[in-house]
Amino acid sequence: MAAPRPGLALLPVAALLLPAASPVATLELDVQGLRSAKGVLQLCLTTRPDSFPDCKGDPRAVTRTVPAAAPVIRIDGLAPGSYAAAIIHDENGNKRLDTVMGIPREGFGFSRNPRIGFGPPKFDAARFPLDNGSAPQPVKMRYLL
Predict the structure, then answer these.
(1) Tens digits of per-residue pLDDT, 40-85?
(2) What is the pLDDT at residue 100?
(3) Cα–Cα distance between 10 and 16 in angstroms, integer?
(4) DSSP annotation string for 17-67
(5) In the CATH hierarchy, which fold is given to the domain comprising 23-140?
(6) Element (H or E) spanning 11, and its range?
(7) Any residues with CB less than 8 A from the CB of 27 and at least 6 apart, and which?
(8) 7 vs 3: CA distance, rounded Å
């Protein structure tokens, strides 16, 4: 019979003292239908309906600016939950969506690719669940002019 190991008796106590790891998720936004590789893509990813689609007023929102030539945006370390994403194809790099009489001149897209009427969709139309692990989310860009 093997001799008892005193360290093993403390193992259950040590496990209780370790903090539980927070679940994390990875999101890949696959931007489809870009009309050119010029400029940048500006992303807003939020969990708050009142901050969609521009992320204003949400200190926990994720914003990114990436080259349009690399149309897959990967975000690691997200907490599981419900999110909505808005993407602008800022072709001239001026950090805003250019319009003519209120009609966008540059491309835009939203998670879940909701129907577009006048103005951006509501948060619920673009909302998607993000669970532990990795999830791809296609975003189809639209150009009106």
Answers:
(1) 999 999 999 999 999 999 999 999 999 999 899 999 999 999 999 9
(2) 96
(3) 10
(4) HSPPPPP-EEEEEEEE--S-S-SEEEEEEES-GGGTTT-TT-TT-EEEEEE
(5) Immunoglobulin-like (2.60.40)
(6) helix 11-17
(7) 45, 74, 75, 78, 83, 130, 134, 135, 137
(8) 12
Q: Which two tokens stand for residue 9?
A: 């008796």
Q: Which amino acid is at 12?
A: P
Report in angstroms the alpha-carbon separations of 75 from 2, 19, 61, 121.
50, 24, 12, 23
Is 24 within 8 Å of 78 (Cβ atoms)? Answer: yes
CA dihedral sign, ordered 139, 25, 47, 94: negative
Measure the CA angle with vertex 54, ends 25 and 109; round to 5°. 75
Alpha-carbon distance of 102 to 118, in angstroms, equals 10
